[in-house]
Design goal:
69% of the residues lie in helices and 0% in strands. The chain is built from four helices and no strands. Helix 1 crosses helix 4. It binds zinc ion. Zinc ion binds next to helix 2 and helix 4.
């Protein structure tokens, strides 16, 4: 997928996850709209910053199926364990879910994920 497509997905993911947390989980578990968009974009472009798409074989650990599992687990742990402030927790969850969406989108391409 192109960087532009990932950025669009990040904007949508940031907004949807932020309002999802607010409405489905708890009213105070959210960040502002602009923050949710910025965090969504960060999570969505992060895998390609960690492993720049310089060749067809750029997808390694940070783009792997294992990473999908780790990210999903981290989201659950963050939501269950009361370690961080709600706004910080919401921000991290938005970044992690955007990262997950990046991997899911990349997995649908012909190259797939390792
Ligand atoms: Zn990628």
């Amino acid at each position: 997928m192109t960087k532009k497509q990932h950025i669009k997905a990040g904007i949508i993911t940031g907004i949807v996850v932020n309002y999802g947390l607010k409405w489905l989980v708890r009213n105070d578990l959210s960040v502002g709209l602009i923050y949710s968009i910025i965090l969504g974009i960060i999570g969505e472009i992060l895998p390609d910053i960690l492993e720049p798409p310089t060749s067809r074989w750029h997808r390694k650990l940070w783009h792997s199926k294992k990473m999908i599992m780790y990210m999903a687990l981290l989201v659950l742990v963050l939501l269950i364990i009361p370690l961080l402030k709600d706004s910080m927790k919401a921000g991290i969850v938005i970044v992690l879910i955007s990262y997950l969406i990046h991997l899911i989108l990349d997995s649908r391409t012909p190259a797939g994920l390792p």
